[in-house]
Design goal:
Elements: H1 4-10, E1 20-24, E2 30-31, E3 35-36, H2 37-43, E4 47-53, E5 71-73, E6 76-80
Parallel strand pairs: 1-4, 4-6
Antiparallel strand pairs: 2-3, 5-6
Amino acid sequence: MELGNEMFVENFPSELQGKSLGLVINHSSVLPPGRSLVQALLEKGQKIQAIFSPEHGFSGTVEAGTEVKDSQLKDIMIYSLY
């Protein structure tokens, strides 16, 4: 069985080649054996412009209903959607 994010990385859509990407993800966006989706895309030479994180933040550690501040992962901005 292959995960959707594995298929996305391995069969990256030609329409997105060379484009700046925005990802709606959190800490659980991983590929086997625990490699992050962000790292996998960067290793393939893709440009990630922004990450948009859900209610509990990119790390998944923020309590429900709590405001999450924008942050950064390396040089990629992480914008809170909550």
